[in-house]
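Researcher: We plan to redesign the surface later, but first we want a full-length starting point. Tokens attached.
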């Protein structure tokens, strides 16, 4: 395998790691609520991901932080389940791609047909990873009633992972 193969494997590994981080962190959207008087001020930040929702309440003298699981609550909507599923499947396909690229890089004589298959797999993984944020920004946003400006790091990381996977697919097709 040539340098393009090593680049494709590296991009796949980076995309996989970024995608896993995007999947697990409770930062797909963040909202902030401030209440209080001149004497007592309460500021509440709510961090929501695909699996947990966390809140940090800042009182005048102390802070309180708690997290709850989203599964089997009113936040566990069909749209959220679709985002979870497409992201997990996309990461699984990305992992299979990584195994194929590493095996091709280390063990096999380079075969053009395998590079084309890897390219198709990478583009498929990128597409699956991209579907999750699209559904989240449309269907889940409507269910949760938050503003698009409140989207946060987990959302962005999943998009970055999808773009890297798509780039890997193009590189693999060129090998």
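Model: Full-length starting sequence:
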């Amino acid at each position: 395998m040539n340098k393009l193969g090593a680049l494709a494997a590296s991009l796949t590994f980076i995309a996989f790691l970024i995608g896993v981080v995007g999947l697990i962190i409770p930062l797909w959207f963040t909202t902030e609520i401030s209440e209080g008087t001149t004497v007592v001020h309460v500021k509440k930040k709510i961090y929501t991901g695909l699996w947990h929702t966390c809140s940090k309440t800042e009182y005048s003298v102390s802070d309180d932080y708690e997290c709850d699981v989203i599964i089997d609550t009113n936040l566990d909507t069909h749209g959220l389940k679709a985002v979870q599923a497409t992201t997990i499947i996309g990461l699984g396909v990305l992992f299979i791609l990584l195994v194929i690229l590493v095996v091709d890089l280390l063990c096999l004589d380079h075969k053009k047909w395998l590079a084309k298959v890897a390219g198709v797999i990478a583009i498929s993984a990128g597409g699956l990873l991209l579907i999750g944020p699209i559904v989240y920004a449309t269907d889940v946003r409507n269910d949760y009633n938050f503003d698009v400006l409140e989207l946060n790091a987990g959302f962005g990381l999943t998009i970055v992972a999808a773009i890297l996977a798509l780039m890997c697919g193009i590189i693999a097709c060129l090998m």
